[in-house]
Amino acid sequence: MARLKLPSFVHRHRRLSWLAFGVFVALSLLLAPLAFSFTHMAATSPRGLFGIPLLVQSNTQSISMEVPEGFTLPPAWSGADRVTVLIMGLDSRDSDSVSGAARSDTMILLSVDPVAKTAGMMSVPRDLWAVIPGFTPNKINTAYYLGELHKIPGGGPALAMRTVEQTLGVPIDYYAVIDFDSFVRFIDLIGGVKINVPATIRVDPIGRDLPPRDLQPGVQVLPGHIALAYARERYSSGGDFARSERQQQVILGIRDRIVDFNLLPGLIANAPQIYAELSAGIRTNLSLQDAIQLAVLATQIDSEDIRRAVIGEQQIIYGRSPDDLAILIPIPDKIHELRDQVFTGNTNLGPLTPGSPQERMAAEAPRLLIRNDSGDAGLGERTQQYLSGLGATVVETANGPGSGQTVLVDRTGNPYTLAFLAELMGVPSARIIHEFDPNSPVDVEVRLGSDWLNRNPLP
To answer: Are strands 306-310 and 282-284 parallel, antiparallel or unpaired?
Structure first.
């Protein structure tokens, strides 16, 4: 990409602006600031902007959102590939007293299609049981903690990204980690966030020795600590699933402000000031240039073109962990169907694709690797011919150690192929493994066992 022509003051503050711009992009659908002139109007009006009830006024020092004369926005992201960002919210109060590592309290996957100008948002429950690379299975919110605790390459963000990639079958490009203290300070900085509370809900603010309070139904402006309490409340009707929906409500509510009031120029022009307020609680791997261009792209996406979903009761089974903790056991095929509804991939195949299981498998067009672990040297070749006759593409056949039962390993997210092969070969769900690897040369690995040797329809 060509180098961006930014105002000289941005170059002078390049080191300070790097993280701030990364935050702007990763959170352009999450934490988009409100122009100072409008927050000032809300603070001086008894009912706030547009007559909306204002619960409290911000006490955070105001930051000017003036745009320098002659300032122009850089071009939007010019790439054609989908861009995906993992947003993680951390509560520093949950940090280990010795290591300082914390679990992720919130995980939201944001994905943008720069060609179609569409976006998707999916919330991942903190109690979802997941395979964490290099560790024993655990709740998905422990991936960040384990990465930080054991100081793996890339730390908590890298391990969390790999875990979510493997769980959802979606490659992730970037991450943004936000401490809740920074979230509260940001909301206060912009004068609160407008939320339409659907029903009475009791929220319990943290860290300020404030008593719980009841939010009444209706449109209102919430200050930072109340907005955080509203988004985090776990004990109201709907539990964690309703909690995830409220988080998305807050995200989209703030996102609408930057678009409705064309605030991006002021955001970019005043990046160093905002950085000074928020940088201590934010980490991201976005570069300055990518962040700016993605932010411009985000403002070009209409609200109706942002799909959102929460992994909920249709995609999980309630269960208990080995140490007797309540967990959510994922149903991979259901999660992948939900994923396909929210994120547009590089194929027209979707969860409602018509046809028989065999036709859906053919439409998915997977590359299969057959590893013959049955002990019969010819079974791999015979299975290759058989599956090829059913429309599958077998790119490699190899002989394995010669023991075990038939196992299916999904490398790139292929729910229809797995469903077809599992039924055809009698493979139970316990022997279907999801090891997501976007760089894998094959999509599904079929490990043939003695069960397939003894019971198969091969000619």
So the answer is: unpaired
